[in-house]
Amino acid sequence: MTETAPLAVKDLRVSLAAREVVRGVSLTIAPGQFVVLLGSNGSGKTTLMRAAMGVIPAASGEVRLFGTPLRRFRQHQRIGYVPQRSTAAAGVPSTVHEVVMSGRLSRRPFAGLASRDDKAAVNEALALVDLSEYAKTPASELSGGQQQRVMIARGLASRPDLLVMDEPTAGVDARSQLGLAELFGRLLSEGRTIFMVAHELGPFEPMIDRAVVLRDGRVAYDGPCSGGDLAAEAEPHNQHHPHLTVPQHHVGIEESGAWPA
Ligand SMILES: Nc1ncnc2c1ncn2[C@@H]1O[C@H](COP(=O)(O)OP(=O)(O)OP(=O)(O)O)[C@@H](O)[C@H]1O
Question: Which residue ranges make up each domain of the chain?
Answer without folding.
Answer: 1-66+194-254
